[in-house]
Amino acid sequence: MIKPVLPEPRVIPRAEHTVSRADIDREALKVMHRLRDEGHLAYLVGGGVRDLLLGKKPKDFDISTSAKPGELRKIFRNSRIIGRRFRLVQVFFPGGKIIEVATFRCRSEFEVNGGEIETLAHDNTFGTPVEDAFRRDLTINALFYEIENFTVIDYTGGVEDLRNRLVRLVGDPDRRLLRDPVRMLRAIRHAARSDFTIEQETWGAICRHVDKLSLCPDSRLRDELFKDLRAGSSRTWADFALASGIFFELFPFYRGVFPLPGPADQEGQRLAAPVPLVALLFKLLQVVDQAVAAGREFSEEMLLALLLLPWAEARFGLLAKELDRSVAYRFSRKLRSELDQVLAPLNIKRSSRESLAMLLSNLPLLLTHCPVESEEVGEWPKPLTRKGYFPQCLAFYELYRAALTGEQPSEVISAAAPPPPVARQKGARPGRRRVGRAPAIVKKKGGIFGLKK
């Protein structure tokens, strides 16, 4: 098979870009210098270079190199190889810092062929720097920074797209989306996160191929969804997702609740005239973004409850329900049953579905005690506050109230965060302890081999 001729890169000298070594983690620089000293190419790649060019502080610094995983393990003794299909090396430093190093590749990690994810042999995935750039999803994520001459290397036009505030798929957008439909989720996430516009050919391909998301594993779609909701730009993400139709592929039960996108929505990459329930969703997600910007974290069930509240209002008239004790239980069971059905495609775990049903079904109770229209939140009934689920339900109520009134959510929304993992003592074994049973071995002499008589 004849390989296509790939273009020469555009090399941007230090005087013409804003990437500075002072803004790069010391550990990442150590890794690149060590690889260079061992005779290998080593570049800072991807989102780290993009964020530095945008004047942002990157969350992670990833490195690509010509060294193979086995060679990396020999160079860095403080490392390990992870991944089965696409191996990369994690280099560990004091203080918990981890730098991930990958060998240049010529293929993407996820490729769809005939409705199935391709399994690629490990030696067939290694490539050159130019092949590594062209296998990436977006031009703005295909930039390299090298420490020999402090230059930025651009094979795909990513620097120009950054200047024009454009999100563009690398290569032919139709082909790239058919090969891995999850790329459309990443495109709208980066557009929302940086307040960029999606390039027209890329946007058109996304609108044409939204139905191909059904080819992707549930776990990938679920993981990408929660990345979007926790990115601090979920309000803008929802606008892109609704205008493109992606939202209805992820949540088909919203068809008939929200209007499907029309030509004006798709042309403008935004909803031209949001209906009231869409406006409610936007307000809820705006509050989430404000809380994320303030350093808050949200559990999966809290995010899903906010995302599904407009659906629950349309389906059950949730916000106006008056539930006494006997009706409330039956309603919660009915709601749980419907949630099991509508969330089946995302494979949400059972405990999260139960918590989600608890949050939605108890909101009418809190609204009965303290309507949103009331100027102040009074004292809650003592029996209600003693319930184990009250803190999370109160957090959900606070977020809903903030969305409608424009108030800042109180500190109680910290209850929306997932609980920290409980550390088990070293040597402790899980399982129930037998109560009321003395040990078989006793210190007193007697019996057979020290056993009790």
TrEMBL record:
Q: Which residues form the Poly A polymerase head domain?
A: 42-168
Q: What does this protein do?
A: Adds poly(A) tail to the 3' end of many RNAs, which usually targets these RNAs for decay. Plays a significant role in the global control of gene expression, through influencing the rate of transcript degradation, and in the general RNA quality control.
Task: Output the CDD domains linked to this UniProt entry.
Answer: NT_ClassII-CCAase
Q: Which residues cross the membrane?
A: none
The Gene Ontology biological process annotation of the record reads: mRNA processing; polyadenylation-dependent RNA catabolic process
A molecular function GO annotation = poly(A) RNA polymerase activity
HAMAP family documented for this protein: PolyA_pol
In this protein, the active site sits at D60, D62, D137
Q: Where is the composition biased (Basic residues)?
A: 426-436
Q: What protein name applies here? A: Poly(A) polymerase I
Q: Pfam families attached here?
A: PolyA_pol (PF01743), PolyA_pol_RNAbd (PF12627)
Cytoplasm found in the keyword field: no
- Give the E.C. number(s): 2.7.7.19
What reaction gets catalysed by this protein? RNA(n) + ATP = RNA(n)-3'-adenine ribonucleotide + diphosphate
Task: List, for all copies, the residue spans of the domain called tRNA nucleotidyltransferase/poly(A) polymerase RNA and SrmB- binding.
Answer: 195-253
Region listing for Disordered, in residue ranges: 413-436
Similarity comment text for this entry: Belongs to the tRNA nucleotidyltransferase/poly(A) polymerase family.
Species of origin: Desulfurivibrio alkaliphilus
Query: Any idea which UniProt keywords this protein has?
Result: ATP-binding, mRNA processing, Nucleotide-binding, RNA-binding, Transcription, Transferase
